[in-house]
Recover the amino acids of this structure.
């Protein structure tokens, strides 16, 4: 019923903001207007979330790492644990969705089910869980391992983990709570049942300690680039953060993922594809490019070269700043490489400029706004709105996971400049239409166990 | 230096409130003024915390269970995960300390170190971690185990776990953060070092992802009743929630624990002993007793009998409501019984009344306000203040972990009635003297690695 209502409604654009501490650019903390301590300051995250809410965005998104995985002598990292941080943000906001990343490789499903259910309860139905499998060695070594579990193993664990978490979220039926003070009946225990899961990775008896959450399930988010990632996303994800550099690639990705989901019996409205998008905004395109170049110039070139080399799987000495990329780059190996970022980076490098040659490494780093594999648009609000509208209307994206260059002011510029254009063009909401993240994303509330039994 | 300052300051009483959802009484959700949904309503926890803050209490405390461990057909349980819940409470309060329970048996030290460090950062230095080892079978079965690990094993793991967490909290020196925007120097990486822990239970490389927290370490709390528990508390705990029914027992416990801590080289100011205390307040003693009996009468007697039998380690059929407790009760066996609650319950049962006989089971259940093993005072604000002052001045307690009968109104009555008396008698603060939980508890900030090296 929810599903058909959603299908009848006009298709709407969805926008999240990825609060990557000071912003997407590794140098975002350096301009005079930035606060270097922002990465550990809850007030920074609250301020960004409040700007996002003023702009009627769908959600804020927090990445996570279970180790130091970047060069902190020069730049901030994701430091604060996202579920705890977003619970504070929840108390200072009313509508904005709250998506936190947590790893299936270094947690237990019972704990993750409870933490995200709690976030959904305390936020009145605004929680989302970004499911990651954590591919770096430094994280593995913080959890008793000498090596990263291989790709297939990590995704097998992630699939079972996610199923157990969903079962725990459904272990209380929606109407299990009675709360009859006069009769002294608190819970209908017939409606609270074990999950009794016995699998390859986990044995979990259940039930959860928690009544079903406002959203039924917190929204499941995934970043499915690899084959295993797409399989997991097609099965479970309700929003997917992809990394597509080109329109064609994005269109192919969205179609592939949605057809995989439909093959698994999920409806066409079950899934939102939201490519990453870094925005660098200026009053003119030239001003925006100046802003970008000033920010990129504040990044040590050695750092940018090392980062690019890391994505390409080569040593930095093979890169010359004013040369083109080497030919015959090795494909990411061992099942653990990040194919998505590799391909995206290569696509940018081979995007011919006006002189019809490949970009030099220096030009490539500028185009990538320092690197990271996500698409960068540098331009005026009008140019950015045009690009967003084109991708959205063609179905290359249901929306975007925004990664502003610098926070909060890059988001402020987006909300003041781009959002009103998208609203005027009729593709973005002018106000929230419901209290939950599912309402914002137009996702149906999962029916839960009792409704399933009734339907069977 | 901090230590000697603390020693010179007048000794102050410390008061936490245990937000046990609707209150300590299993029937606390049933009176007309109570909200049955309080146990999953963040606004309830915020309201209680704000009342505690208005009363200048030290902290709110949240218990936790990783399974349903009580009879939910009749009563609420600890449902929401405490660190996430308290992060929301943090955003709605300014001074009150925030102590969350987390288990060392079913978590990883790296994750716990990050979550509590995050809570300390987002609250501006108000976090505390109550370290528990989780003794129930239902929890074990949610984490792949068929049996509860034995007592000694659990405490050995807890000791190693706590040491690793503290090492991670110290893995960044206090001045590792630079944040020099002009020079582009973000962190002094020489001051961020691995912990490189290899132990019996854990292998953790570190460092943490997080700068040292406002408190250095979140405050370490423990409830050390057994021998192993006291050893762990003496080594690590800065606040101990004990369960003492009698003044003599409390005095002996506090002396034992402090001498154990001193034997380990910790100063006399390193540790606060805070027995649990349920308060049932009335304008007259008779009114308070009526309130207690009405609340106890709202608990099914079968439930109270089963609960009491559970603490005593016998089957409920051995208890007659109007008979005294059976003789020759078995001591809690297998190293997993809760000796503290057993002894406390027995002490109450054998507290002779005016007719110099032991209490009947019904009378005992009334005295225990439904059970649970913590001490109950039923009386006027004056009577409660007298009792608190006596225990405090004699050194039987440094303060109390309050468990009001019904929340929030039992706490409101305490803050309005008892707190002003304690303030007038000069043993309780009239305002907060600093921003952190350590400030409230008069605990020194742990010096961290660089200061230790400098001292060596």
């Amino acid at each position: 019923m929810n599903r058909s209502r959603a299908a009848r409604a006009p298709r709407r654009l969805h926008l999240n903001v990825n609060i990557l501490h000071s912003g997407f650019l590794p140098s975002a903390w350096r301009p005079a207007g930035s606060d270097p301590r922002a990465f550990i300051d809850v007030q920074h995250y609250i301020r960004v979330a409040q700007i996002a809410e003023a702009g009627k965005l769908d959600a804020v998104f927090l990445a996570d790492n279970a180790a130091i995985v970047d060069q902190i002598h020069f730049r901030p990292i994701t430091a604060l644990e996202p579920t705890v941080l977003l619970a504070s943000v929840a108390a200072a906001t009313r509508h904005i969705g709250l998506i936190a990343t947590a790893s299936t490789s270094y947690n237990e499903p019972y704990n993750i089910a409870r933490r995200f259910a709690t976030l959904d309860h305390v936020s009145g139905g605004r929680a989302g869980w970004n499911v990651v499998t954590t591919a770096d060695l430094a994280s593995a070594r913080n959890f008793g391992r000498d090596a990263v579990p291989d790709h297939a193993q990590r995704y097998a664990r992630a699939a079972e983990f996610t199923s157990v978490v969903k079962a725990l979220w459904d272990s209380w039926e929606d109407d299990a709570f009675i709360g009859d003070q006069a009769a002294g009946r608190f819970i209908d225990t017939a409606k609270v049942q074990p999950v009794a899961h016995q699998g390859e990775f986990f044995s979990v008896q259940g039930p959860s300690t928690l009544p079903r959450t406002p959203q039924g399930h917190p929204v499941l988010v995934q970043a499915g680039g690899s084959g295993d990632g797409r399989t997991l996303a097609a099965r479970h994800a309700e929003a997917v953060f992809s990394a597509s550099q080109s329109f064609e690639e994005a269109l192919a990705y969205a179609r592939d993922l949605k057809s995989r989901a439909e093959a698994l019996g999920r409806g066409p409205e079950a899934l939102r594809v939201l490519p990453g998008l870094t925005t660098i905004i200026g009053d003119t395109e030239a001003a925006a490019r100046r802003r970008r170049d000033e920010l990129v110039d504040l990044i040590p070139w050695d750092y940018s070269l090392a980062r690019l080399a890391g994505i390409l799987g080569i040593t930095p000495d093979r890169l010359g700043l004013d040369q083109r990329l080497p030919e015959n780059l090795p494909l990411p190996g061992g099942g653990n490489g990040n194919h998505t970022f590799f391909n995206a980076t290569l696509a940018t490098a081979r995007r011919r400029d006006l002189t019809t040659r490949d970009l030099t490494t220096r030009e490539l780093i500028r185009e990538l706004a320092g690197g990271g594999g996500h698409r960068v648009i540098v331009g005026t609000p009008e140019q950015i709105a045009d690009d967003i509208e084109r991708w959205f209307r063609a179905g290359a994206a249901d929306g975007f996971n925004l990664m502003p260059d610098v926070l909060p002011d890059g988001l402020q510029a987006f909300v003041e400049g781009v959002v009103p254009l998208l609203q005027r063009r009729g593709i973005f909401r002018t106000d929230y239409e419901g209290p939950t993240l599912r309402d914002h994303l137009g996702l149906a509330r999962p029916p839960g166990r009792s409704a399933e039994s009734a339907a069977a």
Q: What stands out?
A: Confidence is low (pLDDT under 50) at residues 1-6 of chain B. Chain B touches chain A through 74 residues (CB under 8 Å). Residues 2-284+375-455 of chain B form a domain with the TIM Barrel fold (CATH 3.20.20.30). Chain B has two domains: 2-284+375-455, 300-369.
